[in-house]
Amino acid sequence: MEKLRAAQYACSLLGHALQRRGASLELQKQIQQLEGHLSLGRKLLRLGNSADALESAKRAVHLSDVVLRFCITVSHLNRALYFACDNVLWAGKSGLAPRVDQEKWAQRSFRYYLFSLIMNLSRDAYEIRLLMEQESSACIRRLRGSGGGVPGGLETGGAGGPGTPGRGLPQLALKLRLQVLLLARVLQGHPPLLLDVIKNSCDLFIPLDKLGLWHCGPGIVGLCGLVSSVLSILTLIYPWLRLK
């Protein structure tokens, strides 16, 4: 499935490159047809994915963390609706339901896809915040145990804080720098979370472009889709890279 997706977005990227280089119309048409066939093939293979997404939503309801329970459940429900719309589109394109309004159902599917990605990114942001808090607390304990001082970016308040006259901007810059370093440390120590953030961020450009909320162009959409697909293939080859 992910290989087909990678091939589809590679065709989209290639078609954009050929158009910019002034390639023959016949070659461009062949690439577009290949992309369309790959898209239709993916829709066929996704038949039944709505049921899988609903089962995943039912399992997520039992998570103990309220925020994770909400984000993951809503994400799976939107994915189920996205796949349902995708099935209708497949029926229309394959000729089983020729009267289907393709544009209307495509817009619906991309809306559900966008909501699912927003929930995924919200879950990623929440996980990052939790890990940053844990890492910050661990750093403070290590510094106190060694007898060193605690930087203002890790522990706010007290003398010399952001409210001290003449020290506001330097303290704010230090705090920001420490938070960025802390974020980098967290992502470096948790590759599955880093890959999930990159993948969801790349995927986000696809529905934004298709819904007309942010016109990225076929080149950017193809590149983002290809990067996301390659990352998904990596998680299949190396299961430990998949975010649990």
Compile the SSE list and pairings:
Elements: H1 2-20, H2 25-45, H3 49-60, H4 66-93, H5 102-145, H6 168-189, H7 191-210, H8 218-237
Question: What this model shows, in words?
Answer:
The chain crosses the membrane at residues 220-241. Keywords: Membrane, Peroxisome, Peroxisome biogenesis, Transmembrane, Transmembrane helix. It is found in: Peroxisome membrane. This is Peroxisomal biosis factor 11 beta. With 244 residues, this protein is mainly α. It has one domain. The chain contains eight helices and no strands. The longest helix is centred in the middle third of the chain and has 44 residues, at 102-145. The chain starts with a helix and ends in a 7-residue tail after the last helix. Residues 156-163 have low confidence and may be disordered.
Could you name the key traits of this structure?
244 residues, mainly alpha, 8 helices
Instruction: Point out poorly predicted stretches.
Output: 156-163
Helices and strands, in order, run as: HHHHHHHH
Write down the Rg: 23 Å
* Gross geometry: globular
What is the number of helical segments per DSSP (H or I, 4+ residues)?
Answer: 8
For the secondary structure, the number of strands is 0
Query: How widely separated are the two ends?
Result: 20 Å
Rounded mean pLDDT score: 88
Main sheet summary: none
Q: Approximately what portion of the residues adopt beta-strand conformation?
A: under 5%
How many distinct domains?
1
Q: State the helicity in percent bands.
A: over 70%
Structural class: mainly alpha
